[in-house]
Design goal:
The chain has about 425 residues and is an all-alpha fold. About 70% of the residues lie in helices and about 0% in strands. The N and C termini lie far apart (about 80 Å).
């Protein structure tokens, strides 16, 4: 499969380069000034060693924020002056204060977003220590499970951009995610299942991550899709069901960014109907085929529309993610508007898309509005014959009118008052 690389031309203002240089010189001067100020260093060390855990942790938080600025700040200030490495090791491996440990992991998540922060935590073994936590038997230490969500979140931040590296260096992470998502004990494991699904949703926002799983964990990915379909059909936990909807949507989406919130018209037009020759389109099409092998696309659409009309806001909004995922690919539009035994075109368009009574809350109204904007934007890029085949010019014009009227619109009714005799 050929690689497609998007490049973007950039122009740099000389004044911006000058400002950046001044900032660097200012930062360097600040570091040098701090290195010479023994009283400030000693006073801050006193705060770090304070018997008051809150004071000590706040001091550490300041150090983490400083370390995030640059590798020089991390090395010369946080490590050389205050030995941040020793303090992190103490919190993660020696301290018995579970709250401090949880907060420490949250702080390190901010640091690991930066290349120098990631390398620092990896080279000093902190990531390895946290990865081991995911394979621990927490039955002996019930409080240990409280750290799991923060650790899973931290590794998700790394894995989204470094999928291969995380799999090779910390294979326990992927094993943990798949095992949690595939756990059949929904009642007793609902927290872990939701955590795994929400993490996968975050990871599937990156097409590169989906591509890596598709190439290296295809069997696990197929089993995950099978499990999501089962949850959609059978799970009685609404939060798990809603997360399953959203996870499926991100799996089959060729452009996951379009599934989020309000998009500008320019953004919609620039990413409409992913080209058939792009690897993201091919990836989305293959994943959609895997999904349809578990449940017919018209049956899944009927199920989604059923939940989209229910009074439960979370389920309604979750179903919008799936409909948006279908709306920006050729195969998705065909699946959405092709007449079937399960869902007629009239039921879809008149009964749901153009029926404003299905949404009573502002969030739902705006979400459906974004869905219809996405549909219309994509249809304007298709041939007239294909538009006529799928939706018809009249229905397309009605959806365009829906957009002009805005997300919140009600038909005005005129009435005449008569004076009683």
């Amino acid at each position: 499969m050929s690689e497609y690389v998007q490049t973007r031309s950039t122009s740099v203002d000389v004044s911006e380069l000058s400002l950046s240089k001044q900032q660097c010189e200012s930062r360097l001067a600040s570091i040098q000034e701090l290195e010479k100020s023994a009283s400030v260093v000693n006073e801050f060390r006193g705060l770090l060693d304070s018997s008051d855990s809150i004071v000590a942790f706040r001091a550490l938080e300041v150090l983490i924020q400083i370390a995030s600025v640059s590798n020089e700040h991390l090395t010369r200030v946080c490590q050389n002056l205050f030995d941040i490495n020793k303090r992190i090791h103490h919190l993660l491996n020696v301290s018995k204060d579970i709250l401090s440990q949880m907060n420490c992991v949250e702080l390190l998540t901010d640091l690991v977003r930066h290349e120098h922060g990631y390398q620092f935590l990896k080279q000093n073994g902190h990531l390895n220590d946290l990865a081991k936590h995911l394979s621990r038997d927490i039955s002996a230490d019930p409080f240990a499970s409280l750290m799991t969500p923060a650790i899973v979140k931290m590794f998700a931040v790394i894995a989204r951009a470094r999928s291969r590296e995380i799999n090779e260096s910390y294979p326990v992470y992927f094993r943990y995610l798949f095992a949690s998502a595939l756990d059949e004990d929904v009642i007793n494991s609902q927290l872990n299942i939701n955590l795994a699904l929400e993490t996968f949703i975050f990871l599937f926002e990156a097409n590169t991550f989906k591509f890596y799983l598709h190439e290296n964990f295809r069997g696990d990915l197929v089993r995950l899709i099978q499990r999501l379909v089962w949850l959609l059909k059978n799970c009685i936990n609404d939060k798990i069901k809603a997360n399953s909807f959203i996870c499926v949507a991100f799996i089959i989406s060729a452009d996951p960014e379009l599934l989020h919130g309000e998009q500008s018209d320019a953004r919609l037009m620039s990413s409409t109907c992913a080209p058939k020759d792009s690897r993201w389109y091919s990836l989305a099409h293959d994943l959609f085929s895997i999904l349809c092998a578990q449940i017919a696309d018209d049956a899944l659409l009927a199920r989604m529309l059923g939940y989209a009309k229910k009074p439960f806001v979370d389920l309604r909004l979750a179903s919008h993610f799936y409909l948006k995922a279908l709306a920006h690919t050729h195969f998705g539009l065909r699946s959405l508007f092709r007449p079937s035994k399960s869902v007629s075109q009239k039921e879809l368009i008149d009964g749901y898309l153009l029926n404003r009574s299905t949404e009573l809350e502002k969030d739902g109204m705006e979400s459906k509005y974004e869905l219809i904007k996405l549909i219309v934007a994509n249809f304007t890029h298709l041939s007239a014959d294909l538009v006529d085949e799928l939706v018809g010019e009249e229905n397309l014009n009605r959806m365009s009118l829906f957009i002009k009227q805005g997300p919140i619109y009600s038909v005005s009714e005129s009435s005449v008052a008569f004076e009683s005799s």
